[in-house]
Design goal:
mainly alpha
């Protein structure tokens, strides 16, 4: 059950992290220096928000978000209660990784798309995102692995999953065998995610 809770937290938080983080990353890229919507004040504001959220230790973020989490999902406990802080903690990371992936796209492709009269929406959907796909998939992989560690930390405040199992049984009840099993399961999960991510990156990479 703890493994299933961890997978549920990982899947739910990763989905919302990508849904929120990708548009934020695109906006960071477009408003950056010498980009389509070069806007220094907006870029500095977005960068400040992203950097502030990234600098808050996740354990502290878990505690700070308890009232907001209860307001959003009705509880701060269990797998459901862990998803909002997981999303808030991982979205800035994914947004910054997405921005980096978009910066690696050949500028000539964007200029050629502009020259053909494409709209901004078409440039983003038909040129930027497809060309940045390998980098974005790598960003999703890194974010997913980071979320695995975050789900483990959420066990400190009753977030459920393998982290909660390790804290309640492995640490508080002094059962090192339970702790060892949870660590092994988390290692296996990370290896599976990394292998799957690497295969996807290689499949969609043109290099």
């Amino acid at each position: 059950q703890a493994s299933l809770d961890t997978l549920a937290m990982l899947g739910g938080s990763l989905l919302f992290t990508v849904l929120f983080g990708l548009p934020l990353g695109v906006l960071l890229f477009l408003s950056g220096p010498r980009q389509l919507f070069d806007n220094a004040p907006l870029y500095r504001l977005l960068s400040l928000v992203v950097n502030v959220l990234r600098s808050v230790p996740f354990v502290i973020l878990l505690i700070l978000m308890i009232p907001l989490t209860e307001l959003i999902v009705g509880t701060s406990l269990g797998a459901v209660g862990a998803i909002p802080p997981l999303v808030v903690g991982a979205t800035p990371l994914f947004a910054r990784l997405a921005e980096t992936a978009l910066r690696e796209v050949d500028r000539g492709i964007i200029e050629a798309t502009q020259a053909m009269g494409a709209s901004t929406r078409q440039i983003i959907l038909a040129a930027l995102l497809p060309e940045a796909r390998p980098g974005l998939l790598a960003a999703v992989t890194v974010t997913a692995i980071t979320l695995v560690s975050y789900t483990a930390m959420s066990g400190l405040i009753g977030g459920g999953g393998l982290g909660d199992l390790a804290v309640r049984y492995g640490y508080q009840r002094y059962q090192p065998d339970v702790m060892a099993v949870t660590v092994i399961l988390l290692l296996v999960l990370v290896q599976v995610l990394q292998s799957a991510g690497d295969r996807l990156v290689m499949r969609f990479s043109r290099k």
